[in-house]
Amino acid sequence: MMTLFDNYIAFATTVFMGLLAIVNPISAIPVFMELTSHMDKKAKRNIATKSVLVAFCIILVFSVAGKLIFHVFGITLAALRVTGGILVFVIGYEMVRGDKESKPENAQLGAQPVKADQGISIAITPLAMPLLAGPGAITTSMSYSAAKDLTHLAIVIAIYAFICYITYLLFIAGERIVKVIGTNVMMVITKMMGLILAVIGVQMLALGLRELFNF
């Protein structure tokens, strides 16, 4: 019994470290702050809640029925990587450029931040998908869930739910983090993370294209 329990603990630790490294919620803070910079606290909390809930639902669905979904719709992991890479690159490029004046949609979102449905698009893309529940997180959760019993599946889902909760807390504390480290430092971090995201996007795109065309 103790051996089985130890195996579950080891499995949970492995899943937690693997998903945490791939999701990397700390790196998503600058993205969240940039996309919600024109919103009030209520709207930011709303976006944070929706983004983690959508991300959790995505991972839940793919953990339980990922292979079936891919088979039914004829979706390949390579195509998912290509799409995710393009989305990540675009967001990273916008963060590096930092031209807020050329983003009238942000101003429009900030003009009426009390409406619950405003900004839902950024909660889904890019926050939930592909940043929090991208191809890496989806494939990792699917691989951990495959060929395992229901207990292992429940562990994977519970671990990702915990990571989503951590991410939510980090999103909500984003302004306080900025106050501690300063606006200028946060701006530098934002641009650095934008560059990193752009590079990750290119890497995801290149990997997807290589798998898609077998070269």
From TrEMBL:
Q: Principal localization? A: membrane
This protein's GO cellular component annotations are: plasma membrane
Q: Which residues cross the membrane?
A: 12-35, 47-66, 72-93, 119-138, 150-173, 185-209
Entry superkingdom: Bacteria
Q: How does it sit in the membrane?
A: Multi-pass membrane protein
Q: Which Pfam families match?
A: MarC
Any idea where this protein resides? Answer: Cell membrane
Q: Which InterPro entries match?
A: Multi_antbiot-R_MarC
Q: Which UniProt keywords apply?
A: Cell membrane, Membrane, Transmembrane, Transmembrane helix
UniProt keyword Cell membrane, yes or no: yes
Similarity annotation? Belongs to the UPF0056 (MarC) family.
What protein name does the entry list?
Answer: UPF0056 membrane protein
Organism listed in the record:
Chitinophaga polysaccharea
